[in-house]
Amino acid sequence: MSRTPAPSYRSVRYEIPDDLKAEREKYSATPNVKGLDDAAARICELFGYRPGDVTRAFIKFHTEQTKKLAYHKIGGNRYYSDRDLFDLMHFGTRPSSKSQVSA
Fold first, then answer.
1. Which distant-in-sequence residues (6+ apart) come within 8 Å of 68 by Cβ?
2. Which of 24, 33, 49, 90 is deepest in the core (most CB within 10 A)?
């Protein structure tokens, strides 16, 4: 009798639909949003949420706890790209290396 481990959410591979691939390409992969507050404001600006709907705590939780939001450490500060924010809001995670589109 052998045991098969349950797959974790990180091992699940998925394909990005073509319409989302095209929309994802519109967003910059360059880290241009500095800090948690600016990232929360940028999500509201890009995706039409009311100011205050996305909070600093939301960004911090997905950066540190769930690790679903990628960031770049530059000069001791966290910088986020628009594409990273898009991935979080549309996929709920970073896409796997198999399904990433060129940057």
1. 62, 88, 92, 93, 94
2. 33
Q: ∠ CA 3-14-40 to the nearest 5 degrees?
A: 115
Confidence at residue 94, expressed as pLDDT on a 0 to 100 scale: 53
Please answer whether residues 94 and 11 qualify as being in contact, where contact means their C-beta atoms are separated by less than 8 angstroms.
no
> Got the DSSP string for 41-97?
HHHHHHHTPPTTSS-HHHHHIIIIIS--S--EEETTEEEEEHHHHHHHHHHSSPPPT
Q: CA triplet 69, 89, 37: central angle to 5 degrees?
A: 60
Residue stretches of the chain with pLDDT short of 70:
1-14, 93-103
CB 35 within 8 A of CB 78: yes
Provide the terminal-to-terminal Cα distance of the chain, rounded to the nearest Å. Answer: 45
Model pLDDT, residue 90: 85
Domain borders along the chain are 26-91
